[in-house]
Amino acid sequence: MPAPTYRLSELAGKLGLKLVLREGAEDIEITGVSSLAEAGPSDLGFLANPKYASQLATTKAGAVIVKEEHAGEVERALVTPDPYPMFAQAIGLFAKPQGSFSGISHLACVDPSAGLGEGCTVYPFAYVGPGVVMGRGCTVFPGCYVGEDCELGDGCTLYPRAVLMAGTKLGEGCVLQPGAVIGAEGFGFARTPAGIKKVPQIGHVEIGGHVEIGANACVDRAALSATVISSGTCLDNLVQVGHNVRIGKDCLIVSQVGISGSTHVGDNVTMAGQAGISGHLQIGSGSTIGPQAGVAKDIPEGAVVGGSPTVDYNTYLRNATLMPKLPELFKRVSRIEQELGHKPMAESKPDRSLAAMWSRWLSMMHPGGK
Amino acid sequence: MPAPTYRLSELAGKLGLKLVLREGAEDIEITGVSSLAEAGPSDLGFLANPKYASQLATTKAGAVIVKEEHAGEVERALVTPDPYPMFAQAIGLFAKPQGSFSGISHLACVDPSAGLGEGCTVYPFAYVGPGVVMGRGCTVFPGCYVGEDCELGDGCTLYPRAVLMAGTKLGEGCVLQPGAVIGAEGFGFARTPAGIKKVPQIGHVEIGGHVEIGANACVDRAALSATVISSGTCLDNLVQVGHNVRIGKDCLIVSQVGISGSTHVGDNVTMAGQAGISGHLQIGSGSTIGPQAGVAKDIPEGAVVGGSPTVDYNTYLRNATLMPKLPELFKRVSRIEQELGHKPMAESKPDRSLAAMWSRWLSMMHPGGK
Amino acid sequence: MPAPTYRLSELAGKLGLKLVLREGAEDIEITGVSSLAEAGPSDLGFLANPKYASQLATTKAGAVIVKEEHAGEVERALVTPDPYPMFAQAIGLFAKPQGSFSGISHLACVDPSAGLGEGCTVYPFAYVGPGVVMGRGCTVFPGCYVGEDCELGDGCTLYPRAVLMAGTKLGEGCVLQPGAVIGAEGFGFARTPAGIKKVPQIGHVEIGGHVEIGANACVDRAALSATVISSGTCLDNLVQVGHNVRIGKDCLIVSQVGISGSTHVGDNVTMAGQAGISGHLQIGSGSTIGPQAGVAKDIPEGAVVGGSPTVDYNTYLRNATLMPKLPELFKRVSRIEQELGHKPMAESKPDRSLAAMWSRWLSMMHPGGK
Fold first, then answer.
1. Contact criterion met (CB < 8 Å) for B254 and A187
2. Whole-number Å distance between alpha carbons of B305 and B29
3. C82 or B206, which is more confident?
4. Banded model confidence at residue B367, pLDDT cuts 50, 70, 90
5. Is C337 helix (H, G, I), strand (E, B) or coil?
6. By percentage, how much of chain A surpasses pLDDT 70?
7. Does C243 participate in catalysis according to the annotation?
8. Closest by alpha carbon to B191, among C87, A365, C266?
9. Has the ipTM of the complex gone over 0.85?
10. How far from the centroid of its chain's Cα atoms is residue B7's Cα?
11. Interchain CB distance below 8 Å, B179 and A200
């Protein structure tokens, strides 16, 4: 299937943007999208970050999406107040969808009681269980498992090996990246004198519309009711969402974040990579959790926090500057104490066990070296 | 398949609990289990945490599992000294198992030399290799891979896409959540002047009885002998266990923990989410490792530690209070130095690169905002 | 298939090592490899770490790979300046490859337009899409997905359920452990007033020769061009590599590391477990990033860093010693202030919310006691 191409004027129409041609410049065929630095004469580029404005003078791009103020700097401009999302939309026009098959493969296993809407595609080796209800235009790639009684809205895409355990509900337009697991049994265990007792998890997962779940990410089903992810929210790869968590709308949860059970997250929350959120907490709408943060208490709406345990953003930045000066601070206090005639604090030596661990590890990784 | 229901008196019998009915209350049909807040008149609830005792007065639950002291506060009580594990057992009576198929599917690929015990179920698209020995009543969901010479005890469940590489041994009653990988090749590499040399890992994994492995969790095989997980231990989602690790009985390893190669973990150890344990360490029985902890030295039996690198629990809590006051401490010391006529420490400014990184990231995540 | 065995003299030849026999000792059949502690009389062991030199006197190993200085301490020695990588090579001679099938299974789904080189093996339930080009001797295990137009060099191994999305390129001799996902859609999202806008990711992934990708690890495709992993680099389990990242040659990226989008990593970089690297950074060749490190700025070539945010290795070790003494430092400063007649800093009490969270969690994990 050849890649799509468009007349620039046609693109302008599709994107709803004003086309500004320099004197003598003509409409051209656009064959792809690119960064300004890598673009060729039939590519469409964009300028969003003023840091790269100088690239407008040197780019070979046939046309560029820019703000009004830069329209005169290029031969062919598509003008908008917000170039980045417009460029995103343009990319979509040139994107070839993944996959190479349509229809219901005879190599798939689809239960006779499953109801698939018009235009669904189910690849070889996909398994669709009894009572499943799938909307129109869903795509299920090889190796997927759609458990009994799952419900999928229109236009959902399950990339290879995505798993939906029984009773999972997806809204319309959801995308599950390869290996995503929805509805596995949450970590319900209790220690008793007789040993570890498992608490069966008999709830399910409910996901709103236009939610994206990253590769190998996991969303556990609830103990009794529902683990909920609301519309528009996106989870990155390897994210973990525990049982009974509720996440609001339009949240961005970056790679390798872990949210423990029963925590409630508001709308428009952003969590940076590898952050960890304890259980039974309230994370307020519009808040921002920093990378590798360790959240152990409720976070107010609109707060920006970082560190483990978390502190407010400004304290976090300030402490980042101060930590390298900690050894010096100890010396200064010792000096003051000496001057005042106090018994000084014991001299600080490096933690031997930690140094030994680093030593052993570094020599394993760099034999003969440090 | 309709959901199971029970007369309350029958439930009391099955759970071995005393049934206490208020004057005039009758035996009823119980159709499900629920939290006190969400229960309806034919649901069974429970009270374990005294914090929620007030809900006994308002709950609509038809019956409640409670301690003796609360038996008079509800219409129908099932009395026990330990309500939570009893409730767990009750949930099990109402749980519908996942899955919708039984028998050996003709769409599975089962090697003729594999020996499956009575009552096993193997779903479509599951692969069972040569020499595999499976006990009675095992269930292998779609997409699973059971490599040559694996041995499974009675009653094991492999949820969709679980992988057992060659020679893996599972005890009875093990459960692998979707995407779990047992027996992949450990990270055995050494740097040499000629480049990175791979060390083939030719050992295997041995797992005891009633072990649960979470979704997309990974347990690597040993270099030469066995990586061992003992009976009763449970691993949560996305956990990593490196080659040659030995984990004792009844450990709870929470989501996204990483345990590096050759570390030995005792019995009854609890590791909270995202903790990291270095290699070649001894983690004593009964110890507790806090969330996001970084363990770089042996941990004594019964210890409770937190932080990275770890410190004892009390120091960890105390430092959590002190860290936000660090900027103030630097100022106080400067003031003292001034008073004593010392040259003061340089004024601390926020780390510019870190602030720049946060700034760029925040504007990406919140264009137009902070 | 019986395990391979070799005469010791034959092994010496294959490994290119000098065989030194004690007076009266003979050539023997070697049937396996083992650690010195666990070896039997027909096993080959090795001594690399001087810490274990005393085991030479007690080992039952039939032969041992040692440095020249120890050749006289054992009955049969294979002599080399660098025993560990030599032992690694020996292990390879005794390793039985995983798997039990060869050829193209009729239960696989291989597109007629895919070109497979001589000697390829494709297992049942593997999917190979249109336009795929596979070199000689590649092996594709059950459940793998090789998307349209992927290119694999000679001798690649895709273990069960590995996923290559469209257009992925692998060099020769690559190994993907079970569940690895290459080419999923990167986390391209932007917040706009109208909500979250997805930025389609239409690039691909290019991987060099002899690269290993760990179990359930994820490497996202680029927004427009290529995410690159260069030859010899090895990624451990559950690692995340974001879109548009470029990694140089011979890097070792340990388990659960996360590298954010558009960061460039040089050659010979080592990243320890659970480290996190922010986006748009330059990580210099030969640098070492410590366990759980949080990298938020460029790292110079050859640097060794640790902590979050990172500091140089020596500062990291020193601070690890000082942090447990922080409470005492605050008390000392208060005492000085009192002596000078200052208003003292407020008394520090443990952070109540953090203590409450620990308390609740510990009692869940250990009912009845701490």
1. yes
2. 48
3. B206
4. very low
5. helix
6. 94
7. yes
8. A365
9. yes
10. 34
11. no
Ramachandran bin of C368, using left for φ above 0, alpha for ψ from -120 to 50, beta for the remaining angles: left
**Could you tell me which chains touch chain A, where touching means 3 or more CB pairs under 8 A?**
B, C
**Among C256, C221, C220, which residue's Cα sits nearest to residue C235?**
C256
pLDDT for C291 equals 95
Instruction: State whether residue C5 sits within 8 Å of chain A by CB.
Output: no
pLDDT (tens digit per residue) in C238-284: 999 999 999 999 999 999 999 999 999 999 999 999 999 999 999 99
Residue A240: pLDDT above 70?
Answer: yes
C358: nearest Cα among B304, A223, B53: B304
Q: How far apart are CA B29 and CA B40, in angstroms?
A: 12
CB proximity C187 to A under 8 Å: yes
* Alpha carbons A322 and B330: distance in angstroms, whole number: 8
Instruction: Burial-class residue C267 by CB neighbours within 10 Å (0-12, 13-18, 19+).
Output: middle
Overall residue count recorded for chain A in this entry = 370
Annotated catalytic residue within B243, B264, B342, B366: B243
Q: Is some CB atom of chain B closer than 8 A to the CB atom of C92?
A: yes
Bridge partners, residue C185, by sequence = C221
Alpha-helix runs per DSSP H in chain C: 8-15, 55-58, 83-94, 313-322, 326-340, 352-365
What residues in C contact B361, CB-CB < 8 Å? 278-279
All residue ranges of chain C with pLDDT < 70 are 1-2, 344-351, 360-370
CB B83 within 8 A of CB B91: no
Q: What is the pLDDT of residues B294-330, one digit of tens each?
A: 999 999 999 999 999 999 988 999 999 899 999 999 9
Per-residue confidence (pLDDT) for residue B370, from 0 to 100? 29
Query: How much is the average pLDDT of A8-18?
Result: 95
CA-closest candidate to residue A207, choices A240, A179, A235: A235
Q: Report how far residue C242's alpha carbon sits from residue C239's, in angstroms, rounded to the nearest whole number.
A: 10
pLDDT in tens, B99-148: 989 999 999 999 999 999 999 999 999 999 999 999 999 999 999 999 99
**B202, C96: Cβ pair inside 8 Å?**
yes
Q: Please check whether residue A10 touches B, CB under 8 A.
A: no
**B190, containing H or E segment:** strand B189-192
Token pair recorded at residue A208? 């709103």
**Amino acid at site C227:** T
Catalytic, out of A70, A106, A204, A243: A243
Rg of chain A, C-alpha, whole Å: 27
